[in-house]
Every structure is written in structure tokens, then in C-alpha cells.
Design brief:
3 helices; alpha+beta
Length: about 80
């Protein structure tokens, strides 16, 4: 199934991470990310390479799972 990612996919990710992480972890790693819908997925933009790599390695699979669950279709996540 193809199509644009549901606009609420990132909102669902934010809500889940806010529940699952400590406030400090959320503010440090998740809140600085900006997100754009792009084609079939989301593009997450980090403020620097360090945050980008940390998020991708530690939260990447969870972000994909949450976005897919929220949109009801597979969601590709790209990082920049």
C-alpha cells in the first residue's frame, strides 16, 4: 500500500516517546527533531550529526514501528 504517511504519524511517535522516556531523554533526543512527510514516509531532521546518529541507532526501529502503527501502512523513515 502506497501513499503519503499519515500526518499524525510523527505526533503519535512524540506522544509514545514522551510516555516511554524520561523527561531529560525526551528533551535531549526526541524534541529537537523536526519532521516532514515525504512520499511514503517521514524525514527526520536532527540539529547535528551526533543527535542524528544517536536517534537512528537507538530509536530508529521504534520510530518506524510507531509511525507504521499510527498510519496503518508501512512508513519509511529517512534521516538528515
Amino acid at each position: 500500500m502506497s501513499g503519503a504517511a499519515h500526518p499524525d504519524a510523527w505526533t503519535a511517535c512524540l506522544a509514545a516517546f514522551e510516555r516511554e522516556l524520561t523527561p531529560q531523554q525526551f528533551l535531549t533526543w526526541i524534541q529537537p527533531l523536526s519532521c516532514r512527510n515525504e512520499g511514503d514516509g517521514l524525514k527526520l531532521v536532527a540539529p547535528n550529526r551526533f543527535v542524528l546518529q544517536w536517534v537512528k541507532e537507538r530509536f530508529g526501529a521504534r520510530i518506524v514501528a510507531l509511525a507504521t502503527q499510527a498510519s496503518g501502512a508501512p512508513v519509511a523513515v529517512d534521516y538528515a
